[in-house]
Design brief:
Elements (H helix, E strand, L loop, with lengths): L2 H20 L1 H12 L13 H7 L7 H18 L5 H21 L5 H23 L11 H19 L27 H15 L6 H38 L6 E6 L6 E7 L3 E8 L10 E4 L3 H4 L6 H9 L4 E7 L2 E12 L8 E10 L5 E5 L9 H12 L3
Antiparallel strand pairs: 1-2, 2-3, 3-4, 5-6, 6-7, 7-8
Length: about 400
Amino acid sequence: MDSLTQIVLGAAMAEAALGKKIGNRAIAWGAIAGTLPDLDVIANAVLSPLDALSFHRGPTHSLLYITMASPVLGWLVHRFYKQPWHQWVGIISWLVLLLGIFVAVVFSGTFLMEKLFTALLVLVLAVWMLLRRYFRAAYDTPQASLREWQWLFWLAMFTHPILDCFTTYGTQIYLPFSEQRVAFNNIAVADPAYTLPFLACLIAAMSYGRQQAHRRRWLYRGIVYSCLYMMMTFFNKARVNTIFESSLVRENIAYSRYMTTPTILNNVLWSGIAETDSAYYYGQYSLLDAEKRFQLHRVSKTNDTLHQLLQTDPTLQRLAWFSDDYYFFKETGTDSLGFYDLRFGTFKMKRTDPEQYVFKFNLRKNQEGKYILKDQGDRPRDANFSEAFAALWERIKGV
């Protein structure tokens, strides 16, 4: 899932574990723990693009890694709060955060007075929070045991890869024993309908004291909502699967396997891809469509001559593994290939553009005759957001 969702889930889990004892500190540390596994993206600076693609949602998302790391992290934080200088570390961290927010706001946007007003408003609010946290007579050091801190980190981190498993990208939770990427394909990697109400409940909980009953009620409302929404996505998937199967039968397509997945930012518009001996059939269906049917399109598999490259080329082998064998590739030049991952369906950069695949890889041949990843071409995040979202919204509304 996206970082905001993981932060919210991690914060909620930590609040459930330790919020009654340490208040908003549990939410803060849970938010940090919830996003820690995604720091594997730092490795992008030293890894090749292909290795980075494979490494993401790899070792740092392993259940074994998290089970080993959380006791260490819990011990470090427990020791940190035992030090007499921990309060000053918190103050310095707040000041660095304030400076970062101020600079970010000032250098964003276009209207100078509006930027300055927003920056000053954020600065005043943050300074007030800093004074309220560290310069009040009632300031106290968190009173939590070592095991409680370790439990907080394990719970906040453990839920991260579990949530990622519900998306299409795939998560290697069994490393180092297996490279299998677990993907249930029932929710988009970013779904505001899941995240925003959950976030609102968490913010509401933070506004009450640690011992107040309303704090726990708002927390449980957020957790219950997130669970109910996730259950709904499985219901939607079962419904979509039935419609996809009937669409394939109607077209007399003898498939060997298929998968369905929601499109980005919603759980209403779904993509489906089915494999036969010689081709893939893909299409989209919105739960708001008038006719319960996928409009299917055919794409031929890579021809046998070109497909033989897979036997010897490590880049193609890795991409085939990454795409769970839902792919095709073709020559795009004398020494270049286009590799297309079909699992994520298609999108439009803007309303008038033809559809193109969400995940594609441009490869070129190196001096040794092997293919290497050049780039991924245009992707949804490279599009004009308003145009791309307008095209997506039109399709979500149904045909």
